[in-house]
Amino acid sequence: MSQRQLATFTGLRPDTVSALERGEAQGIRFDTIARLCEVLICTPGDLFEVVDDGHRVPVFGGDDEDAIIRERLHEVGGDLVDGPSFLRALIEGRA
Predict the structure, then answer these.
(1) CB burial class (10 A; 0-12, 13-18, 19+) of residue 6?
(2) In angstroms, rounded to a whole number, what is the distance separating the alpha carbons of residues 57 and 45?
(3) Which candidate, 20, 19, 15, 18, places its Cα nearest to that of 33?
(4) Could you list the residue range(s) of the whole structural domain that residue 10 is in?
(5) Which of 38, 56, 82, 85 is found 20 to 30 A from 45 (Cα to Cα)?
(6) Is the same domain home to 84 and 60?
(7) Which of 35, 37, 31, 27 lies closest to 10, judged by CA?
(8) Do 57 and 90 fall into the same domain?
């Protein structure tokens, strides 16, 4: 199926279909995913590739929460911001 045909069948703009295929889209709406899946007879998992970027979400209250937060702050060159200095850091653009 051509990009133009896919655009026609899904009701999407041809340039949108082209950007999605090239991987240049900045985001995608749920209804766009649903339209593509309906026309292509697939599931959303068939359209996406999961790439492990090493990102770990800290578990609040978990044993490693403080270490992960300190590591993230260090990665972005930030300092640990405590409660009393949070507003000042926010105003200065550090939080």
Answers:
(1) buried
(2) 22
(3) 20
(4) 3-47
(5) 56
(6) yes
(7) 35
(8) yes
Neighbour count for residue 66 (Cβ, 10 Å): 11
Q: Do 16 and 25 touch, CB atoms closer than 8 A?
A: yes
Is 33 found in the same domain as 12?
yes
Residues 36 and 65 placed together within one structural domain of the fold:
no
Per the listing, tokens 């766009």 go with: 32
What is the per-residue pLDDT across 40-91, written as a single tens digit (0 to 9) for each?
999 999 988 878 878 777 667 777 777 777 777 777 665 555 666 667 767 7
Q: Report helix, strand or coil for 44.
A: helix
Same domain membership, residue 72 and residue 57 = yes
Check: CB of residue 36 under 8 Å from CB of residue 3.
Answer: no
pTM of the predicted model as reported, rounded to 2 decimal places: 0.54
* 42 and 73 inside one domain: no
- End-to-end, the C-alpha distance of the chain in Å comes to 48
Triad 44, 17, 12: Cα angle to 5°? 90
